Amino acid sequence: MDLFFNLAINGLATGMLIFLLAAGLTIIFGLMDVLNFAHGGLFAWGAYSGVWMYDISGSFLVAILGAIVTGLLLGALTEWLIIKPVYGNHVQQILITLGFMLVLSEMLKVVFGPNQKSAAPPAYLDGSWQLGDVIFIKYRIFIILVGALVYGITYFILKRTRIGLIVRAGVMNKEMVQSLGINIRLVFMLVFMVGSAMAALGGVLLAPYSGVIYAEMGMEFAILAFIVVVIGGMGSFTGSLLAAILVGMAQAFMAYYVSELSLAVNMLLMFAVLIFRPQGLFGGKGDAA
């Protein structure tokens, strides 16, 4: 039972990191019908900019804020230059955002150098607590709390606030919302920026968790995020949370019990979901929109 709790905590922390990346994808697709394969590049830029800010300032809070600002700025640039010309065309969105992700990865090497960067959690989040034989690693508990907080705040904004109502109304009938004097283009750009900031936040939190970051990490984690989005249901915000936790748990337990399947378990999960429930666990866009 102690081993179960230790593996479950590790899996939950991994799942929350994946959720922060997948949540941005879910919001952008669920509310804007945009397939953004450059999302992984924004994740990597969040990691690098956060580590750079941490090295300069020595403050992990500054690093997190710096990564979020980086995500917001790059998100605005991506929406304006890359996404805006291809709204409504999924094939063009896939092609242009895949190319842009490669550009973002190469730009990381130009700006920060081609070598891997090491990262460690701040002293107050280092170490662990122990309750019996169950070990609670401080940084993993921190990640779980941040992921839960992001989910709660985002869900509240979408379902209980005026801006959330405007966004959901704009998804259903953007012409009607525009006729009420609301700049729906600006609203959608803000949605894209928020989704990008979530990816950047996930990147900066991953850096101390994994201990090392590298330019190609964006592609690897983007694939994992899309697996989560498919399992949860394209456009379902709650589905992306539960699917990310499921993937994180599966990885943690498989890595311990059947290490040979730890890399394949995500694909197997997605395959099973697509066979028995093609729309995903929660299906449709109702939860996000």
UniProtKB/TrEMBL annotation:
<feature type="transmembrane region" description="Helical">
    <location>
        <begin position="94"/>
        <end position="112"/>
    </location>
</feature>
<keyword id="KW-0813">Transport</keyword>
<dbReference type="GO" id="GO:0006865">
    <property type="term" value="P:amino acid transport"/>
</dbReference>
<keyword id="KW-0029">Amino-acid transport</keyword>
<dbReference type="InterPro" id="IPR001851">
    <property type="entry name" value="ABC_transp_permease"/>
</dbReference>
<keyword id="KW-1003">Cell membrane</keyword>
<feature type="transmembrane region" description="Helical">
    <location>
        <begin position="186"/>
        <end position="209"/>
    </location>
</feature>
<feature type="transmembrane region" description="Helical">
    <location>
        <begin position="254"/>
        <end position="276"/>
    </location>
</feature>
<feature type="transmembrane region" description="Helical">
    <location>
        <begin position="221"/>
        <end position="247"/>
    </location>
</feature>
<comment type="similarity">
    <text>Belongs to the binding-protein-dependent transport system permease family. LivHM subfamily.</text>
</comment>
<keyword id="KW-0812">Transmembrane</keyword>
<feature type="transmembrane region" description="Helical">
    <location>
        <begin position="12"/>
        <end position="30"/>
    </location>
</feature>
<protein>
    <submittedName>
        <fullName>Branched-chain amino acid ABC transporter permease</fullName>
    </submittedName>
</protein>
<keyword id="KW-0472">Membrane</keyword>
<dbReference type="Pfam" id="PF02653">
    <property type="entry name" value="BPD_transp_2"/>
</dbReference>
<dbReference type="GO" id="GO:0005886">
    <property type="term" value="C:plasma membrane"/>
</dbReference>
<dbReference type="InterPro" id="IPR052157">
    <property type="entry name" value="BCAA_transport_permease"/>
</dbReference>
<feature type="transmembrane region" description="Helical">
    <location>
        <begin position="139"/>
        <end position="158"/>
    </location>
</feature>
<keyword id="KW-1133">Transmembrane helix</keyword>
<feature type="transmembrane region" description="Helical">
    <location>
        <begin position="60"/>
        <end position="82"/>
    </location>
</feature>
<dbReference type="GO" id="GO:0022857">
    <property type="term" value="F:transmembrane transporter activity"/>
</dbReference>
